[in-house]
Amino acid sequence: MNTAATSEELIIRTLGEMQQERCSSSDRPLDPGCLLERDAERSADRLGCAAVDFPVAVVLPAGGSGERMGLATPKQFCTILNRPLISYTIQAFERLSWIGTVVVVLAKENHDLMLNIVQKFNHTKVKVVHGGTTRHRSIFNGLQAFSSTTDSLTPKPKVVIIHDAVRPFVEEDVLLKITLAAKEQGASGAIRPLVSTVIATTSEGYLDHSLERAKYRASEMPQGFLYDIIFQAYQRCSEFDFEFGTECLHLALQYCGTNAKLIEGPPTLWKVTYKRDLAAAEAIIKETLSMSACIIAGAEAEAVELAKTLQKNLNMMETDVIPCAKESNTEYLSKTQNFIHISTTASNFLGTLDMVKRFEDTDHTRLYPVVVVWVQLNMTKQSVDSQKTDELTAFRSLASEVIQGNVLLYGIQIDHTKI
Fold first, then answer.
1. Higher pLDDT, 136 or 42
2. What's the sign of the alpha-carbon dihedral 76, 125, 249, 171?
């Protein structure tokens, strides 16, 4: 391991082995957060913080019975890798700093179950509301949670996003587009091309006519609205709408004259509907788990150079480089699961220990393991092979200790004098 290229291969291999460890561990709930930036070429969250300077909230109707799935458990509470589906969806919104409250609307009999999920998986932005007998009634109940001027936990938002609890793979760049379009236009919604041709049949069961597929789109979630518009639309809509309607965008158009801006969404907006979809969702989570990394480099020129090289060549969705694990970088330490810590001091583990302590303080490793790859650059002419045994023993001891706190610690030594 005497070249920078070799060190990159070692680090990539280490992260790959870590992914396999996570995916093979069936008793750990895993994190879908990385799915939100699949097509992003920048950190959408930082861009979102700058672009969204107004309050945004979410309503998640989760009162479905899951009849089409054919299971006794409603699909939103079915577990994927020991974690309920709805928890993944909630986290997709909670991880965005520019989104405030997430109102989950569900059947009264599932109230305690939802509170247990909130507590177990450390959801901090959730408010639980009882739903109605139909989808529209449930959404209206969720919107009414913001109308109370006495409840400081659910302040009235400028824009509200309505999303299905069983669509866990919503991406952040789509949410940003929906939110900004809703603020400007009053309403917005995601659409997808039709996969099948839509036909009409006669009462006798024969073909009546078909629609030209190229002219139509499938309406998907998420949908965004100015809160005042969608709340007013629900106040004005008829009992027939409450009983049989499904399309929120139509209510905004019919009762408030607000024509929604339609935005093409990615394939990841699909909805978990049938039993087979649970297996597909699990495969996606495993495949894309932890595809982001944070590289922490010291002030030495060699460490900075290696960090930049890794940032350019690591085949990951997002790679950030920060100078050191200081308090000012808490944002990175709190949202990333993979860390590469580059150091030129052989026996100085203080930086790594400090990171682990912060993980413990913030409960960051509660849901899924955090991986730290400690890269030590040997800056002297002394061979790496002659490093003291007690240094290696200290590192192994540290790795054995932190794994108890759900931190996977790996070490790589590089003889920089031979690069």
1. 136
2. negative
